[in-house]
Design goal:
Strand order of the largest sheet: 8-15-16-17-18-19-20-21
Shape: globular
Helix content: 25-40%
Largest sheet: 8 strands, parallel
Structural class: alpha/beta
Oligomer: single chain
Strand content: 15-25%
Number of strands: 24
Number of helices: 19
Distance between the termini: 30 Å
């Protein structure tokens, strides 16, 4: 056989290639980390030698390695035990559950030690889920944590809850005004412990001890291990850089660039990482900060882009619907909160829109791909118009600018964005988490339309799906099920059935579409000759199983570059 011998041959499976025709094969051969043959068993048997590793799938299903196209890996690792309390649903379903978790942790730590927690969901707390104005507040946790400052971040990352001790250490008074965002206050003007958006949160988070380098490395390795166990071989870390230095005790700091390099050099980076750079304080919220960052921050250009890639810049246009900080064209149900909530500078919507477009043009002129966090339709319209104007003024290249989240992206904005070969990165599991709560915030019609995946695909837009971890756990099977069914995780109620997509479309959104977003569709994202040998082997046929069972599918093996990086116990 000589040089034609394969290092790895996989046989007797249902291989979902995700090639252009979504063909099904039964065998694959790999040499030097790349696919050299795809077909049936006879097509690969001549490549087998005594030195070849052979995996017999025995009828199991194999897909390309999964691409989580938008997440925050270090943040995810840092929000899990032992670094933080896990306050996510279904572990926590009431304010009482939050109080009990804090009480138990307080008994375990020394007085004065900070207690961190993550994941509480206003929409699934018993006391709050029918009342958008209801939050857990500092007064709830003060009695069980009199001597320990406590900071508890909600599942979205856009809201924090702190106790009186934390307010005291941060020097928050009735006169404290945030540079942006909201400090919730009671009728007497005292802070309740609820802080909305980064500018307000920073008034407290700057006092929370930054993770040590070893804790940061532990957080990133923990996240990557979780990705491997879920068949995820590629991901986009959507905000790392100097703009993340003070955010959430350092989980987005520029130091992670060096940590990523260290893991890659040490053979510990068991996933292909695309990094979006965050510039300026809390994400370059003004033109001058952004320009300074573009001129001064050294974006790495010397890494192997198949493993560690730095293609673009992350910007923010607004917040999220549940905190009334999405920048909307129409008011929220509770009143006139739909306008003027952009995180960008400007006294009016028009000024904020102009500032966003100016920033987009600046980044585009530097030659970077741009990803803008935009959830409200007004924020999305401004973002898409910025992309269109930037490309009109400086055409050429293939930047593939995209909208992150795109909750309320209109059919017209989809068409515009598709026309410039752009994309949208959506999170189907978030839709399933908030769909019960959303009608009280934006009304029935807008809630049903939110996360319009069918509209995006039909417009020709490149749709990717992702977890936005730690907002949701990176379980892509749950994401596929949610995209296909659009059923609430809490009540099971269907929201917006006309926006459902097929299993095949959902799989593409987690594989080849993500590779396209990374400018690497010729490298990964499908099982084809010449591409990297990244595979996810699962224990059920995702194409034929009852859609309600997709979330129960187990990952048997994860292979990256022809090497097994995860194997379920018992295999």
């Amino acid at each position: 056989m000589g040089n034609s011998a394969a290092d790895l041959v996989i046989v007797n499976g249902k291989v979902i290639t995700v090639n252009q025709n979504f063909e099904i094969a039964s065998a694959v051969a790999v040499k030097d980390g790349r696919i050299v043959a795809v077909g049936d068993n006879d097509d690969v048997k001549t490549l087998i030698t005594p030195a070849t590793e052979v995996i017999d799938l025995d009828g199991q299903t194999m897909l390309p390695g999964i691409n989580d196209s938008h997440m925050h890996a270090p943040f995810f690792g840092a929000t899990r035990p032992p670094l933080a309390l896990d306050l996510s649903f279904p572990q926590v379903q009431s304010i009482g559950d939050i109080v009990e978790a804090v009480r138990v942790k307080t008994a375990e730590v020394e007085p004065g030690e900070w207690i961190r927690g993550f994941g509480w969901d206003q929409g699934s707390l018993e006391e709050c889920k029918n009342d958008p104005s209801m939050f857990p507040r500092g007064s709830d946790i003060d009695p069980v944590s009199p001597d320990n400052p406590v900071i508890l971040t909600d599942f979205s990352g856009h809201t924090i809850l702190v106790n009186h001790k934390a307010l005291e250490l941060a020097g928050i008074t009735s006169d404290t005004e945030p540079p942006s965002g909201v400090i919730e206050r009671d009728a007497g003007g005292k802070a309740t412990g609820i802080f909305l958006e980064l500018g307000a949160q920073a008034l407290v988070t700057q006092f929370v001890p930054i993770l040590t380098r070893e804790e940061k490395k532990e957080a990133l390795l923990s996240a990557i291990g979780h990705l491997s166990a879920n068949g995820i071989t590629s991901f986009t870390d959507a905000a790392i850089g100097p703009g993340g230095e003070a955010y959430a005790y350092g989980v987005m700091s520029a130091e992670f660039i060096d940590i990523y390099r260290e893991l890659l050099d040490g053979g510990q980076l068991a996933a292909r990482a695309t990094i979006l750079i965050l510039l300026g304080d809390y994400g370059a919220l003004n033109y001058d900060d952004l320009k300074k960052g573009l001129e001064s921050f050294p974006i790495p250009r010397d890494t192997d882009p198949e493993w560690l890639n730095f293609p673009g810049i992350k910007l923010f246009a607004d917040g999220i619907p549940l905190t009334y900080t999405s920048w909307m064209n129409e008011d929220y149900i509770s009143g006139d909160f739909g306008h003027g909530v952009s995180v960008l500078p400007g006294e009016t919507d028009e000024e904020q829109r102009a500032n966003l477009i100016r920033m987009i043009k600046l980044v585009h002129n530097y030659g970077h791909q741009i990803a803008v966090h935009a959830t409200g339709d007004r924020a999305i319209d401004a973002t898409v118009d910025g992309y269109v104007e930037a490309l009109a003024e400086k055409p050429g290249g293939d930047p593939r600018h995209y909208v992150v989240h795109g909750d309320f992206i209109s059919p017209e904005a989809c068409q515009k964005l598709a026309g410039i070969k752009g994309g949208v990165a959506m999170q189907p599991t978030i839709e399933a988490m908030i769909s019960d709560f959303d009608p009280a915030v934006v009304g029935d019609e807008r809630a049903a339309y939110e996360w319009p995946t069918r509209t995006a695909i039909d417009s020709g837009l490149n749709l990717t799906s992702s977890s936005d971890a730690p907002i949701t756990v990176p379980n892509w099977r749950l994401g596929v099920e949610n995209a296909v069914l659009r059923e609430s995780l809490v009540s099971g109620t269907v929201s917006g059935p006309e926006e459902r997509i097929s299993v095949e479309e959902a799989i593409r959104s987690y594989t080849i579409n993500g590779a396209w977003q990374d400018h690497q569709e010729d490298v990964k994202g499908s099982i084809e000759v010449g591409k990297v040998a990244d595979f996810c082997i699962i224990d059920k046929d995702i194409l034929t199983v009852d859609p309600h069972e997709i979330k129960t599918i187990g990952v048997v093996k994860t292979i990256i570059g022809g090497k097994v990086v995860y194997e379920a116990s018992g295999e």
